[in-house]
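Late entry, NAP complex.
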Amino acid sequence: MKEFAANAQDTSRPIRIGIAGLGTVGAALIRILEEDGAAIAKKLGRPLIVSAVSARSRSRDRGIDISNIDWYDDPVALAKSEDIDLFVELIGGEDGPAYAAITAALERGCPVVTANKALLARHGVALAHMAEKHEAQLGFEAAVAGGIPVIKTLREGLGSAAITRVYGIMNGTCNYILTRMGNEGIDFESCLKDAQELGYAEADPTFDIEGFDTAHKLAILTTLCFETEIAADQVFVEGISRITQADIKVAADLGYKIKLLGMARQTPDGIEQRVHPTLVPAKSSIAGVDGVLNAIALETNHVQELLLAGPGAGGQATAASVLSDILDIARGTRVPPLGVPSAELAKCERAPMRVHEGGYYIRLNAKDVPGALAAIATRMGESNISLESVIQRPDLHATEPGVEPESSRTVVLITHETIESAVRDALARIDKDGFIVGQPQLIRIEEF
Ligand SMILES: NC(=O)c1ccc[n+]([C@@H]2O[C@H](COP(=O)([O-])OP(=O)(O)OC[C@H]3O[C@@H](n4cnc5c(N)ncnc54)[C@H](OP(=O)(O)O)[C@@H]3O)[C@@H](O)[C@H]2O)c1
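Prediction complete; structure with ligand written out below:
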């Protein structure tokens, strides 16, 4: 903080930033800083210059001119350089050079801005502690929902309002796939392939489609909402890879859309953090957030529901959030990185998923034998589950491997509000009875 404070007071000097990582976000940031340099200087009352950069390849064409900017092969050396006032980490990865460089900068009191959710989900509390100890600011607006200013809203925008629940669509890849499945009747695999061809999904899409990326972002939001330590390993996670056209069609007929939601709230049993495909009313605001867009809803005691929607990724939108952190730090805004001092964060006590209460969509492949449906209904009743509807339609053919459509019938059960453990028990007993084939599909319903 010392060098930065000294320089920050000397408004005749530009603020010098060092950027490690010149990929999608880093290159976009340099482009914005070039194009908007005059407007930024006007806002700040002094120029903001990129004085040094680091990446792996010095010769790679990035569509930006870095010929007049100092080059560092080693991002840690850049973070330690006395010639920068603010360090921007855009390398990625939860450990390795990103972590080494951020800690090197913070330890010398140099403010840091990062877009790295994986690193924050793992080391966020320790980094916040380090930043506080060395009086350095740590900005990470771009780490959650790319271009949406949700971190600033939570840290600074809500006054003393207490958050009662946070939920949202935090992964554009999943939202793109589910939107196309819903609008065009295409199966999951084809949508994923298109998403990969369009650059919305990675070659290995597991991290996105199985919900882990959403879990990282949710864990960071949970901390800011409920003043608990980041606990990314305590998020219940289910992805979207088992969603079929049958699920999408039945949901639509019942007035719902399927979205991959991340949700967190404080319950009497602890903090509930969950990521899973969810049936949401088609008329709800969150259901209207389609394609690659993200949205985060904050329910609070003072402002009721606040919905922030916009681009969750992409170089330009993400770089805009990085720049907003840079400007805040350059102006001297001082806030604890995680909303409250890190020493005041409580342990995150996990509410077990088995006590979750809600409605359920259950799709089963019942064997086409007498008594199968009656046995299934009986098991549900024994677990005190009341069924709102039982749907059996000829167009809902099973598509799972090993399930013969000729000898089984696809049945969808919609339950009234019940407890997760009751549903799990009933399904285990139905499976044991031998009246179903394949794995049941279970999707939770939220009424917003
Ligand atoms: N892309 C998005 O839409 C988005 C959205 C939100 C958050 N983020 C986050 O933003 C960060 C950057 O993402 P990105 O998409 O811009 O990544 P990217 O395109 O893969 O770029 C990574 C950059 O880091 C550089 N790099 C890798 N290892 C390095 C090392 N050891 N030393 C110095 N530089 C190194 C690479 O250098 P070379 O170019 O020479 O290989 C590259 O320029 C990640 O934390 C990501 O999660 C991205």
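The mean pLDDT is 94. Will revisit in the morning.
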